[in-house]
Structures are given as structure tokens and as C-alpha cells.
Amino acid sequence: MSSEQTSTEPAHRPRRLFLATLVCVLEALALVVGGLYVLVRGLAGSGDQGDTATVGLMLVVLGAIPGIAARGLWRLRRWSRGPAVITQLMGLPVAWTLLKTDSMFIPGGIALAAASIAGLVCLLNKETTETLGIRAPSDAAS
Fold first, then answer.
1. Hey, what's the torsion of the CAs at 63, 23, 90, 59, to 10 degrees?
2. How far is residue 109 from each of residues 87, 88, 91, 96, 113, measured CA to CA in Å?
3. Which of 6, 23, 93, 129 has the fewest CB atoms inside 10 Å of its own CB, making it the most exposed?
4. What 8-state DSSP symbol labels residue 76?
5. How far apart are CA 54 and CA 77, in angstroms?
6. pLDDT of 3
7. Are 35 and 59 within 8 A, CB to CB?
8. Which stretches of 28-113 are assigned E, i.e. beta strand?
């Protein structure tokens, strides 16, 4: 193992990489808490128990994706950027759907859209990709 892999704390973590990690952590928490809320409501008898249990469990499991990505980003693992970017991209159509409603979900849509866009900007930043050891396409050709 290299010294980078054995070290628990990296020498340099760019601010945007830290912010991307934070966005992933918050998204993971939101999915897990939302999933547990739906699951508990379903088990308490609100709505169809089978459907709400399935949706609740699905949200909890989906919360693992940004959670694992956040852990990888924090530990400067190159592979972690892929799941983190996919999570941000998946958040955009969900945010759009929430924004098109005529209800209390609009603020959630705004927050999700802002988080997803901020996460993408931070994850695709040149300093972030260099810190994670990802070369830009123009660098790969040379």
C-alpha cells in the first residue's frame, strides 16, 4: 500500500471537495431520514403498508449511495466521484418534479436543485479532480 492509502488524514483537501462531501452527507441523511419516516408511517397504518414499506426501505437503501460516495470523497478515493456525480444528476429530475407541484414540496425542490447543482460544480472542479487523481481528457492525450 502507498503512503496515501495508509494515511487517515490527507495533506490537502480542497474546499470544493469538502463541500461536495458535505452535500453527499446531507443527501444521504435526507434519504435515510425520509425513508425511515415513510417506513414508520406505513407500519403505523397510514396508507397501504406494503407500498409504504417498500418505498421507505428503498429510500433508506438509496441513502447508502451518497453516503458511501461521501466516505470515499473524504478519504480521497478516485472511484467515489462517479457515484457522487450520479447522485447529483439523479437529484435534478426529482427537484424538477418537486418544483412543478403546487404544494409544500416546492421549497424541497429548490433545496434539492441547489444542492445538486452545487455538488456537481464542486465535483467537476479541476482542483477536485486533480486531488482525486482524475486526469482531464486533454491531459490524457498528452
1. 20
2. 15, 13, 9, 7, 6
3. 6
4. T
5. 32
6. 45
7. yes
8. none
Q: Is 88 exposed, middle or buried (0-12, 13-18, 19+ CB in 10 A)?
A: buried
Quickly tell me which residue has 434539492 as its cell: 112
CA dist., res. 21 & res. 69, Å (int): 8
pLDDT of residue 6: 46
% residues pLDDT > 70 (the chain): 85
Cell 396508507 belongs to: 47
- Of all residues in the chain, the percent with pLDDT exceeding 90 is 68
Summarize the chain as % helix, strand, coil (round to 5): 75, 0, 25
Q: Of residues 31 and 1, which shows the higher confidence score?
A: 31
Q: Which residues contact 94 (CB under 8 A, 6 or more apart)?
A: 109, 112
Q: How far apart are CA 121 and CA 3, in angstroms?
A: 29
Residue count (the chain):
142
